[in-house]
Amino acid sequence: MMNDHNLILLDLLHAAARKDYQGYSKFDALNSPLLKELSFNSKWLRLLYTQLVKAMPLHVRPLLKVAESRNPKGIALFARAYFSLYRQTGREDLLRRGEQLVQWLCDHPSPGHENLCWGYNFVWQNTIFLQNEFEPNAVVTVFVGEALLHAHRLTASPAYLRAARSVAAFLLDDLPVLQESAHEMALAYVLRRVDAVVLNNQVLISAFLVKLWKQTGEKELLDASVRLMNYTVNRVTPYHAWFYTEPPKKSPISHDNYHTGGILDGLLEFFEATGDDRFQTIYWKGLDFYHRNLFEPDGAPRWMYNRRFPYDVHGAAQGILSFKKAARHEPAYAGRAACVADWAIEHLYRPRTHDFRYRQGGFFRWNYSLMRWCNAWMARALAEPTIDPQPRKRTCS
């Protein structure tokens, strides 16, 4: 039975397919030939342009000649949405569409690397590092690895599992180790040593490795997963939250919505893959912080724990995912997931174009859509199965 959310999801996927899953990205300002020329190879000018375009309510990318293109992370998210829908409906066309996207990813890895890896489709300058277009990083590679594992579970194709194992080799063998001890390990975000550890990054890698371990039984994958998870878990605050980086002052991000949700998802996925509950107490305490501090009573996603606006579509998508996953173990969270989804559809969905707008502020909207940031994430979130097909009370309390 299709509910309203599923109908919107199908319209969203059809609209993305008509655009060949190409669009703009949040941090793609330096894909503008003009801004690239005017940056004069200065880190601070590159950072200024990237942040200005990201923050502007007006959609200036077309004026700056930024081209629409496929984002590998977005393609992986869309593939996961199709796979989730296939599991729920049995529709072979959805499985084929997901496999087509995964095949595109396998055909377009970052060039020049022995192991499979992927990066963003834009030049990206942040406070910690500069990345060139398609230069590989851990996060994009993990998201593709997750899509490969999902494809393997559905089809039993050994090719997907081999590709996922190559992803693990990139993560464990190619990324610089920033910190290591008998019980902890922290890997770099990019293929160079940097002076900050991105905390959610360790959990993302850990969760992927433990799911791969479940398929291959390789103890080294499980051992690495535990040490990566320990690194982030051991840096939780006394009030059950995480900063974006270690040390915290290396980033202006403190306790934001979607990175917090991603850490919580990884903690839960570790338990589901292993049955090992060593991280479960911190998970439930962190989930309570997440729910109470990063969502409004009506389901709107707060930007930071101490800052309401802007309400960002990625935060809404992350909340839907995190609460749906939690509902597998505590059914009350199904209503909270539905509440966030209802808010996002009411405030951010654009029926005419079948896509989601970027953000809503206190006085105005960012009334344009970004293919990966908005639509791929919302497709992935809406497609995540609920614990049962029965409607539940919408509650965020």
How would you describe this structure to a colleague?
With 397 residues, the chain is mainly alpha-helical. It is 53% helix and 7% strand. Strands 9-12-13 form a three-stranded antiparallel sheet. A two-stranded antiparallel ribbon has the order 1-2. A hairpin with a 4-residue loop joins β12 and β13. α5 crosses α6, α8 packs antiparallel against α9 and α10 runs parallel beside α12. The longest helix has 18 residues. The relative contact order is 0.12. About 1% of the residues have low confidence.
Fill in the keyword field for this structure.
397 residues, mainly alpha, 3-stranded antiparallel sheet, two-stranded antiparallel ribbon
Helix and strand element order: HEHHEHHEEHHEEEHHEHHEHHEEEEH
Percentage of helical residues?
A: 40-55%
Low-confidence stretches: 388-392
| Helix run count | 14
Largest sheet: 3 strands, antiparallel
What would the average pLDDT be, to the nearest integer? 95
Shape: globular
Number of strands: 13
Proportion in β-strands: 5-15%
Widest beta sheet: strand line-up? 9-12-13
Radius of gyration: 20 Å
> Between the first and last Cα atoms, what is the distance in angstroms?
28 Å
Provide the structure class. mainly alpha
